[in-house]
Amino acid sequence: MTRIDRPIRTILVIRRKGLGDALVALPAVRELAAAFPNARLDLVIDRPFAPLLQDLAQDLRVIAWSPDQSGFGWLRRLRAARYDLVLDYLGSPRTAAWTALSGAPLRVGYDHSLRRWAYNVRVPRNKLGDRKLVQFAGEAFLDPLRALGLAPPAWRPDGARPHDPALGSRYETWAADWQSGDRPRAALVFSATWPAKAWPAAQGAALYRQLWDLGLDPVLVTGPGDDRLEAELRAALPHARLAPPTTLPELAHLLAGCAVFVGTDNGARHLATVLGVPTVTVFGPTDPRGWNPEDPRHVAVSRNEPCAPCNRTHCPVAGHPCLDQLPADQVAAEVTALLRRVGVGHPGDAKETT
Fold this sequence. Notes:
Number of helices: 14
Strand order of the largest sheet: 3-2-1-4-5-6
Order of helices and strands: EHEHEHEHEEEEHHHEHEHHEHEHEHH
Helix content: 25-40%
CATH class of the largest domain: Alpha Beta
């Protein structure tokens, strides 16, 4: 553990790449800002995520990065900021070099054998002494703060809400119509960045029907790269409610107005968690212990196959049993139990069909 014996006036946190990782790290970044209330804290993330993170983190200065900023100009910018503390959450060769070349007196990063040279405060990744830990990623993101001698509380969702997000007229018109109903709303997001994380559209369609029958007002939400999934869902549910294409701030607005999120292990699910929306997530190749908070408002559903979690992007097992054989009935039962537990409505009141 390092004792901080110098004033901290400027802080840089680097959390590039995955949207889900950036969102799960946000509570830890805010804890760091709270520990140094008089310091300016800059958060570097990839440019596509900047509008959302800036909207959710009004107290932070979000710096959008894109590959066209590589080179000496970017490094001069980091050097000129004269950071007192740099925390590198990504630990890639590029971000390790940024950290080292920033000139910051305190440089914090994970103790990776090929990148440890860049840091003078090295943090074991998911380890306690010589013992390997399996812990939620959000809790692991607090470990660098503990290495600095801070004592943050256990990870918890921010419960943040979008702060006056920029909404397009098409989305606003659609959202006003959806929100005019009196049923509890449910966002269904079955996007999967890996083929092995995909849940069959047929099961998603069955779940939509069951949630409607339970008295919810579900909406299907798709994103970039979901063309095939969207076509399959439209074919199975020709009269279902489907959200229009959304920006990330619009997606946050949509999720914040829901009683529950239901879907696969994806970035939208992490956004719902940070917004304080209860979630029910189907897990296949990824480990719920690492990516689902230990919180009764966030439920992980899986078949507990002996080969899972495997973290494979493509399933080598015939039939993809961990997800292809996970029935909608099981997920709907978890949604019902969760909503009753958090006191939202009374699933089962409405018995109409779609």
